[in-house]
Every structure is written in C-alpha cells, then in structure tokens.
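User: Hey, quick favor. My workstation is busy. Could you predict this chain's structure for me?
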Amino acid sequence: MKIVKKNKWNISENLVTPEACFYNRRKFLSSSMIAITSTGFSLKGFPTLARANNFSLSFKNNGKYEVERDITPEEINGKYNNFFEFGSHKQIWKKASKLKLRPWQIIIDGMVENKITIDVDNLIKLMPLEERIYRHRCVEAWSMVVPWVGFEINHLIKLAKPIGKPKFIQFESFLDPSIASGQKQFWYPWPYTESLTYTEAKNELSFMVVGAYGKSLVAQHGGPLRLAVPWKYGFKSIKSIARITFSDKRSETFWESLQPKEYGFWANVNPDFPHPRWSQETERVLGTDKRVPTLIYNGYEEFVSKIYSRMAKNKQLFM
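Assistant: No problem, here it is.
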C-alpha cells in the first residue's frame, strides 16, 4: 500500500484560489480599499489607504469624471514632480518630503464676511470629500492620470462667505526658505501664487485636493492642500496652499510675472496653440512614455468651453 505523506505546506485543492480571482486580485483589492475609505473604516496596525500620515480620510467615489486612460502608477507619479520651491528638476520628492505638513493653517481673507484662519484638518472635517480621477497635463508636454481626493471650490466659497462681487480668487503657497531651498533663489517671486477668475473657480471641475491614491496628500504632491484645475496646464495647480484671497482685482501670478509670453494667466490646454519653444500637439504619458494627441481643454471641453464663449478668438486663453 502506498502511503502519501503530505508536507505541512500542502493544502486541499478546494482551498486553492481560482485563476480568475488571482489575475484580478489588484482590481479587487483596489475596490475593497475604496469601500473601506469611503466609510471611514480602517484596520488598526494595517497600512490601509486611509491611514497615511496618521490621520484618515473618509470619502466617496465620484465616477462622473473618469477618463479612458489608466491611472498613472503611484510609484511613478510620486517620484516625478514639479515643485520649484525645492528645485527645478523632477526628482525633488526626497527634498519635498522634509516639508512639515502638520500643523498647517490656511488663511482665507479679502472680500469675505470675516477673515478666517483654520487648521487644515478642521477644514477637511467641514468638507464633503470625494475621489475624482482627473487628467493632468503639464505645459512641458507630459501627462498623467491621478485619483485625487478633495472637494469642490464651491464648498470653500460657501465657508468663506464672500461679500461684494469678487472677480478673482488668489492662492498663495507657503514661504519657508529654511526647508524649501528653492525659495532661497531670490530671482523668483516667492511665495508661489496662482489665481482663477471667480467664474472658473465656481466651475464644478475646480477642486481643492487633500489626498491622492486614497491617501492623505504627501508633500511632493502639494500636501496638505493643493489646487486641481484639470483643463489648465499643471502650473496653475498651486501646491501647499497657505492663503486664499477673494479679490476684485487680478493679481500677477508666479509664472506670468517671470515669463508672460510663455506662461500666461489663462493657461488652458490647446493642442493647436504651441508653446514658443515646443509643440503642444502631443503629450508623453508617464508610465508608458507613449506620445498621444493632446485634447482641447485637456478633454474637458464639455465642462468648461462655455466659460470662454465670449473670448474664443483670444489666443491668450492658451498661454
């Protein structure tokens, strides 16, 4: 009689994971994590998406804005960044990680009922957070797709209680040369500033970001609070915001003050309007390095073209 002696690592066939489940495990895990973070549930001792930086994000998924491209892998996106406060090269993530994200206060002032100074975590608690998958297009002709977590600027506007008739909202980044070595370069107009018209800011796509990839926003992505306006070139999406000002006057923005002929105020994506030094007809997709055609308004024409209907012939819209 033949005796079969099983090793300790042998298991019964009915416990073997089906092949289909194995090959789709990443999709399953991703959807499971979204469900966990959507309810605010987290597992103690487990590095879940909701427990980054020792504080959690509770959010819902908004699938309205999903795109046909794959999400850029977090590993690639997290190590290829523009953040001039820490240097002009792309691999600044290690330097940026030295930026202390807590405590962090946001000042909201200008044409508002009362000046507000609020801790970023208290701001987050007041906002209805959601995840949106957005395209991101850089003026340097590369692109990626990011699952941002945040809230519409419209919710911030309600909190601010603007008075009068503000025409612009200006965003200002932090200023700390002791941490951000790039801010020691005196020829740049620090701190970094950006601005949207009030109409642009109130568009449903305009998004205040506090997280990415299900996690709280890390420094190289512009933590703890950044802007995402997906129909515009990336330099409009200011990082590490410290002040938000409602105004009836348009301020000169960071790159506009440096190179107004190359980086204008509007900065809407247009494949037919070249940068003075290179074409915008195509873009290099991070993670694949494939070149694909660039879409007008970065693929968001249906949401934003009406904003500029009276200015359609103005070439400056795409600088």
